Amino acid sequence: MENLSFHDGNIFNLLHSRSTEPSHDVDQRMQLHSSLVRRLSQEQELEGHQGCVNAISWNSTGSLLVSGSDDLRVNIWDYSSRKLVHSVETGHTANIFCTKFVPETSDELVVSGAGDAEVRLFNLAGLRGRADDDNALTPSAMYQCHTRRVKKLAVEPGNPNVVWSASEDGTLRQHDFRESTSCPPAGSAHQDCRSVLLDLRSGAKRALADPPKQTLSLKSCDISATRPHLLLVGGSDAFARLYDRRMLPPLTSCRKRMPPPPCVNYFCPMHLSERGRTNLHLTHVTFSPNGEEVLLSYSGEHVYLMNVNNGVGTMQYTPGDVANFFSLSNILHDVESPPQVSTTQNGFHRNGNAAMLKKCTELVELAKSSLEEGTDIFYAIEAANEVLDAHSNDIESALRHECLCTRAALLLKRKWKNDAHMAARDCQNARRIDASSFKAHYYMSEALQQLGKCKEALDFATAAQQLKPSDADIVAKVESIKRDLQAAGAEKKEEPEGGTGRVLSLSDILYRSEANSDSSHDMSRSEGDQSDYDEELEVDIQTSMSDDEGGDPDSNAMRGCLNLRIHRVSDDNKPIENSGDNGSSGTASSSQNDRTSYQPEGAIDMKRRYIGHCNIGTDIKQASFLGQRGEYIACGSDDGRWFIWEKQTGRLMKVLVGDEAVVNCIQCHPFDSVVATSGIDNTIKMWSPIASVPSIVAGGSAGPATANVVEAMESNQQKLSRNRENPLSVELLQRFRMQEFAEGNFHPFECTQS
Fold first, then answer.
1. What is d(CA 653, CA 636) in angstroms, rounded to the nearest whole number?
2. pLDDT at site 100
3. Where is the segment annotated Disordered (predicted)?
4. Are 631 and 649 in contact (CB under 8 A)?
5. Cα–Cα distance between 290 and 26 in angstroms, integer?
6. Dist CA 114 CA 414 (whole Å)
């Protein structure tokens, strides 16, 4: 794939066009051209923090960079000299997770949010004339109305008066600097800040069909640069939400829990919308530069691209669509919008050309050869991506069908996380082109078998056998699925009718814990909520512990490897029936009534996914658009690398070593070909296209160049797969331990170092 050209053209042609006809569009395309991306290398390391750097952000002109750290300082860096200009002692008492320049204030106002639940505003003019070691700065405004960690701040381009803060307490607040310059701490006698723009303390959904009832612990938010009335938020469930601020109710206080307001759109890949597990959550959401797309970064998952509005390449689906997706009879509703068939010539649409046809045909043949030989599976999938994602509207349906089936087979052979789901999508799209396709039915049965949906798999396998009765492979497939069904039936019969009780996952317990915990000091718990933990809890813990977002290494947080299993047992030692997915009080029948009366919204499905990194350990890991046109996608990883993909095809562009442990933050310069990254290290790395030779890999200060990119990605996928069944973030376990300790139910236990 190294010799495959990229879609932004030849840089020399761009340079020539800029010299003859200067234009802003050419400058934008030049900023991060593919030839420059592939030459990115570490240019400099900015030293000045004494803790993990959790937040970096450029000012509007790119002349300054602001950073926030576990050392409780906000640093200001000069871009041209790469020097530290100011280091502000903020007065925060916990890790700083977010910081921004306030627009249109001559870069003198800086705002920060931290784990102490506070938002602080600083005027850097107060540091003028001081000695270099005199860095303590009194906040110009201090907002203490949040009750949990502030994870993200948002500002509106051109608006110097307002900042928005997203917190794990389930609220997004709007702070207007023209009003009160501070507020009393949450829970105090006179605390009545009317700053709540979004009250999502009853906003989390376990699945698309479920009513929102639990606290949506907000992790990220963003405001569209092109349409500032659009607000995007993501948090502790699988669904990103788009709101129109013009349609939201007036600002309120947090003294009364409000129902979540209706949103413009939900965003969630269809295969993630029904998992119903609290460990699946978003760590970062962002708009594309033109505001037409959104990018979602999931913990324990991949990065996904979606259209803001339902358009070509995506669809809006409902819970019914999810339920019917794996059905043999479901061939009518598009998952991807296939190209409109027009008059073709030589297998190509009229707007195609012979060179493109030859290129696509060769790529499909390359992919098929890799499938037969079982080699270079990753690059074969990228070849198929090039055909389907870059030229789908040009190629004739027969070639598209062949490529869809080939990619499905390759995905099923690779078996990385969610590959079976992606293969199923390809098979369904292939069936829409050819309803009697043997390959589409055969590979669909294999995908469903890998997903454990044996009944549906048998339907597709039987249909494939009817298409080719004498094919030995499908005969063996049918028998294999029948054996799986028999084994599942026998296992079900062997389950005891009584026993010690139903085993619940830790995520179930924590989800109920989240539902029952107070979002603020001024809210009381109902009697029904108090009864949720009356039953016995048996805990046998073994989980992987690490410092969340690079916490204080000297803290008393538990580390090591623990395995957690929780049994809930009733007084009469009978299995306890779950009263519903929402974890609220009440009987099963009342929960069922709530579910029946609730009319679930639809959600916008994925357009593309970006794969190779690992996002498990931290809740601030960003996925970002690179460049003014957003033609590339970048994301950090738990293995200390950061990855760059071509947005249009998902093709891997570059892998760089950027940290000794974890890369969390990636921010592209507004105009130059420079990217800033940060993570668990105490430094900020600056990357620019200074490498003499373009390549897919490059080393950094943390280590040498990676010789085998696929090997590194496979290692990351293994981590994600091990995290699949009962993944447990450090933050959730710590919350569980803190609550149990506060209620007198937690007892020390031993842990074994991993």
1. 14
2. 98
3. 514-533, 569-598
4. no
5. 16
6. 41
Phi first, then psi, for residue 489 (nearest 5°) are -65, -40
How far apart, in Å, are the Cα atoms of 258 and each of 147, 253, 376, 581, 673? 16, 10, 53, 21, 45
Tell me how far apart the alpha carbons of residues 191 and 193 are, in angstroms, rounded to a whole number. Answer: 6
Amino acid identity for residue 422 in this structure: M
Is 172 in contact with 233 (CB distance < 8 Å)? Answer: yes
Which residues, listed in sequence order, are joined to residue 536 by a DSSP beta bridge?
569
More confident residue, 334 or 321: 321
Sign of the C-alpha dihedral computed for residues 121, 125, 126 and 128 taken in this order: positive
What is the Cα–Cα distance from 85 to 77, expressed in whole angstroms?
5
Element (H, E) at 233: strand 230-235
Q: What pLDDT score was predicted for residue 548?
A: 46
Distance between CA atoms of residues 93 and 113, nearest Å: 11
Distance CA 53, CA 749 (A): 32
Sign of CA dihedral 520, 521, 526, 527: positive
Could you tell me if 431 and 437 are in contact, meaning their C-beta atoms sit under 8 angstroms apart?
yes
Residues 290-328, buried b or exposed e (16+ Cβ, 10 A)?
A: ebebbbbbbbbbbbbbbbbebeebbbbbbbebbeebbee
As a whole number of angstroms, the distance between CA 395 and CA 313 comes to 15
Q: Quick one: pLDDT at residue 8? A: 61
Give the DSSP letter of residue 729. Answer: -
The tens digit of pLDDT for each residue in 595-625 reads 557 777 899 999 999 999 999 989 999 999 9
Rounded Cα–Cα distance for residues 452 and 466 (Å): 23
> CA 643, CA 131: separation in Å to the nearest integer?
41
Strand arrangement of the beta sheet that strand 119-123 belongs to: 96-101, 109-114, 119-123, 141-143
User: Do the bridges between strand 652-657 and strand 697-698 make them parallel or antiparallel, or are there none, so unpaired?
Assistant: parallel
pLDDT of residue 282: 96
Cα–Cα distance measured from residue 505 to residue 727, given in angstroms and rounded to the nearest whole number? 10
The answer to whether residues 280 and 237 touch, using CB atoms and an 8 Å cutoff, is: yes
Rg of the chain taking only CA atoms, in angstroms = 27
d(CA 208, CA 268): 9
Q: How far apart are CA 32 and CA 39, in angstroms?
A: 10
Which of 219, 231, 171 shows the shortest CA–CA distance to 195?
171
User: CB of 543 within 8 A of CB of 563?
Assistant: yes
Buried b (16+ CB within 10 A) or exposed e, 711-750: ebbeebbebbeebeeebbbbbbbebbeebbeeeeeeeeee
CB-CB contact of 684 with 667 (8 Å): no
Query: Are the beta carbons of 695 and 644 closer than 8 angstroms?
Result: no
Chain-centre distance for alpha carbon 2: 28
User: Sheet holding 218-223: strands in order across?
Assistant: 218-223, 230-235, 240-244, 265-267, 603-604, 316-317
Q: What is the mean pLDDT of residues 531-555?
A: 36
HEC secondary structure over 647-682: CCCCCEEEEEECCCCCEEEEEECCCCCCEEEEECCC
What amino acid occupies position 65? L
Q: State the Cα–Cα distance between residues 543 and 342, nearest whole angstrom.
A: 56
d(CA 245, CA 505): 38
Q: What are phi and psi of 19, to 5 degrees?
A: -75, -30
With cut-offs at 50, 70 and 90, classify the pLDDT of residue 302. Answer: very high
| CA atoms within 13 Å, Cβ hemisphere of 157 | 13
Look up residue 231 and give its two tokens. 């607000």
